[in-house]
Write a structure and sequence with these properties.
two-stranded parallel ribbon, two-stranded antiparallel ribbon, 18% strand, 3 helices, 38% helix, 77 residues
C-alpha cells in the first residue's frame, strides 16, 4: 500500500440543499449549485484520484424529509 495522501470532503445538509432567492428550496430534490461546482472542479483539475466527496446518509434523509414536508399530501380541490 502506497503512502498517497487523500482528501475527503464531507457535505452537510446546509451546503447541499438548493437555495432560491436566499432561502432554502425544498420543492425538489436537487443538490446545491456549490456541490456541482466543487465536483466539476475536482474532475477538471484531475484530482479525482486524490479527493473523495462524501454525503452522509443522515444528510440525504434530511433532504428527503424536507422535500416531502413541502409538498401537499392531499389536495383539497
Amino acid at each position: 500500500m502506497g503512502s498517497e495522501k487523500r482528501t475527503l470532503i464531507v457535505f452537510d445538509t446546509n451546503k447541499l440543499r438548493s437555495v432560491i432567492k436566499g432561502g432554502p428550496s425544498y420543492g425538489s430534490f436537487e443538490f446545491s449549485k456549490e456541490f456541482g461546482q466543487i465536483s466539476d472542479f475536482i474532475k477538471e483539475v484531475k484530482l479525482a484520484d486524490f479527493v473523495n466527496i462524501a454525503i452522509p446518509r443522515i444528510v440525504v434523509e434530511e433532504l428527503l424529509k424536507h422535500d416531502f414536508r413541502t409538498k401537499p399530501i392531499l389536495s383539497t380541490d
